[in-house]
Each structure stands twice: as C-alpha cells, then as structure tokens.
Amino acid sequence: MLIDSHCHIDQFPEPEVLLQECQQIPMRVVAVTNLPSHYEIALSHLEGQTHILPALGMHPLCAQQGIRELSDFRRLADSAIYIGEIGLDFSRAGIATKSIQTRVFEEVLRILHGRRRFITIHSRGAEEAVLEALSRHQIQNAVFHWFTGPATLLKDIFKAGHLVSINASAIATQKGKVLISRAPKDSVLVESDGPFAKVHGKPAHPRTVALAYEALAQEWGVPVASAVTQVSRNFERSLHVSLQ
Q1: Which residues contact 44 (CB under 8 A, 6 or more apart)?
Q2: Does 77 have pLDDT greater than 70?
Q3: Per the domain annotation, does 244 fall within a domain?
Q4: What's the domain count of the chain?
Q5: DSSP code of 183?
Q6: CATH number of the domain to which 149 belongs
Q7: Which residues pair with 202 in a beta bridge?
Q8: 3-state helix/strand/coil string of 19-47
Q9: Whether pTM exceeds 0.85
Q10: Which residue range forms the structural domain that includes residue 228?
Q11: For residues 146 and 47, what is the distance between their CA atoms, to the nearest angstrom?
C-alpha cells in the first residue's frame, strides 16, 4: 500500500472528496494539522477512517496562536499516535517569530520526550537548530519533511537515526536529487505535502506520491514494488510498530 507521510488534507477545498479518493486508491495518508484545535476538528471528521491518520500539529508559522494552545497539545499528546507538523522556520516567512517559535517547539519536545510517536518535522532555514533540539530532548526516528537544508547536514541527520521524506516537487530540483542519492534506503519516506507542493503547476494530490516512488526505484535500481515495500518498512520504523 502506498503511504503519504505528510499531507494537509484539511487545507484542500473539498477534504471529504479527497478522503474518499484516498480510500479508493487505497493508500495510507498522515493528515498533518497546524494547531491542536485543527487536530480536534480532524478527529471528529476522520472517525471510522482506517487509512487516514490524523496528526497532532503545532506548525512553526502558527506559533503566535499555538502558544495559547500548548495546554491542549499536552492533553492531546497522551493519545495521539501521529505528531505533525511541528518544528522551526527561520526562513524569510518565519524569522520574525523566531523567538516564540523556539519557545513553543521546546515545550512541544518536552511534552513528547519519552513518548514513542511518529513525528514529522518542519525545518526550513532552521535545520541545525531542529536537529540539535531533537538530540537534546532525546527524540528519535523523527522525519525531516521536504528537507531543503545543506547537504552536509544529511550525514548528521542519518547518524542520529532520523529520516527524510521526499515529494514529487522535490525530485525535480537539484537538492532533491542530491537528497535521494545520499539518503540510505532505510531512512526515506514519501510524501505529497499537498496542497502546498505543486506538481505540473497544480496542488499535489496524495496520489502524486507515485512519482516519488518511481524516482526512488530508479535511483535504487529496483522495481517500483520493491521501493514501495522498502518505504513501508521505513514507515513502520518511524512509527515504532509493525503495520502487519
């Protein structure tokens, strides 16, 4: 079964239609959210959906609102299996809120310390700071989603036991190609990051992960089915359980 490890289903114009399409494919989709309040809404809409996996989020670009929802994050983290997206954004879009982002991210990691969870991470412009914080809080097997940082940092990310996720937009870039070539087979996941990522000028749909699987298969010199199997094993490792 195909796996989309990072998709903003709640940001699509018609989320309900998208849910039905994903069930029909079929595929597993980690439905990330930007705030705990969004996660609670997602839970109410995803009841009974076996392959759409809601994730408890605290997006760095929502930190000013998120700091008021930290108590909700703490409460919901007790039962949430999937976490994301969380992290830091020190790019031009987020640098103005660097201080509050850091405060929120530190508290989120304190809450997650010692909990075995799937965690998908936003790290744009802050890759080293994110990696250092994960290490300090002893967070393992986190997934650096759509990694665009320096290639020199990849060795440290993989050495720490973390993973990266690639999407159809990334594989068309030089950085994306370098990432695929340097990532160990057991440290790669696949995502769409829809609707924010674009494929052929249109918002990425979960089904566009097929393009990323094809790119991995080509890089690894294996059939696409073998790439699907490998990514499924990697997902199990990041989730800390077997899906069988």
Answers
A1: none
A2: yes
A3: no
A4: 1
A5: S
A6: 3.20.20.140
A7: 199
A8: HHHHHHCCEEEEECCCCHHHHHHHHHHHC
A9: yes
A10: 2-215+224-239
A11: 28
